[in-house]
Amino acid sequence: MSTFIKDFIERETINRRNFLLASAAGIATTAIPGVFGDGMARAALTDPVCAWSYRDRANPYWLSIVSGGEAFVESIGRKKEDLVNLINEGSSEKCLADIKALLAQHNGNCAIACDANDSPNARPVAEAVQAAGGYVSTIWNKTDDVHPWDFGDNWVSHMTWSDEKPAEETARILFKAMGGKGGVVHLGGIAANNPAVERLNGLKNALKDFPDIKLLDAQPADWDTQKANELMAQFLTRYGDEITGVHCANDTIAYGVLEALKAEGIEGMPVVSYDGNLDAVKLVMEGKILATVFTNPHWGGGISSALSYYAAIGKFKPSEEPHEHREFYGPSIVITQEDAEKFKAEYLDSTPKYDWTDFWGPSNGGIVYK
pTM for the full model? Predict the structure, then answer.
């Protein structure tokens, strides 16, 4: 195996430290005076600041999200550096504080795309944006009892991905590789994240059809490579040879798992993951990962920025759109060794060009609640 996994862990640690140091002089820790508006959306904002609020610049998934946001701002004649990066490092409190500070600094003249980090944080983010008269489009995390249309036009849209079915599909691929028997461990994301919950549910759904496979353990690895490495090492100590397959909630978790397996001299352990990052797709091509799932984060990042911006400047009025345009699923593709090379050529070797005014073209319909 190449050394990129070890290099990735080291790079991730360095990047996280650098961003934490940089934030000491940034917007997140600066008290910026400002008075929020009366909570009413303005008819249209003028040249709003575009921002992306997200977890981790060291993670390839979030790099792809931001690249989409940058591609969008370039499409409206700005430089990609004009996109404001609000990096919360997995803190919902920092996510909300950063957004409030940005709104105060620009008197609400903001078009924001955001992953609220955990589901309960979506409401206070939306409330802050509405109070300031800004606009926000969110992805991934919100609770089922709150909706963009509850906030007039200011909460423009929410996009998530229907992760349960693809995660179930990767689990079935894993179980077949295990010969339909044995023990599996699951390394998940942040416990309160919607995708973490759905990906674990997908695994559990598949287990119903494989009575000879036992779920030995399922623990959160917080989407983090180093935590995944440590957790997998603990699993190997605790369960040893009982583990015959590993279900990972994302690609960066899988990198940590593979490194832990390598450290114990274990080869050929079936592993599946999620996100469809370039390095993971290469590992699928090599047979080191059985399958991963691509959610087109570049498109997701760009279209979320586009929706908030075009709503802000009055190109369309969110409250006049049907609910399936306010809450919708993004696209997903399961990638196996059979189709990995073709997928890589189409989506990763070159970036597809998107029409950022085609707001719902690649989407997969309105969100369905159970």
Answer: 0.83
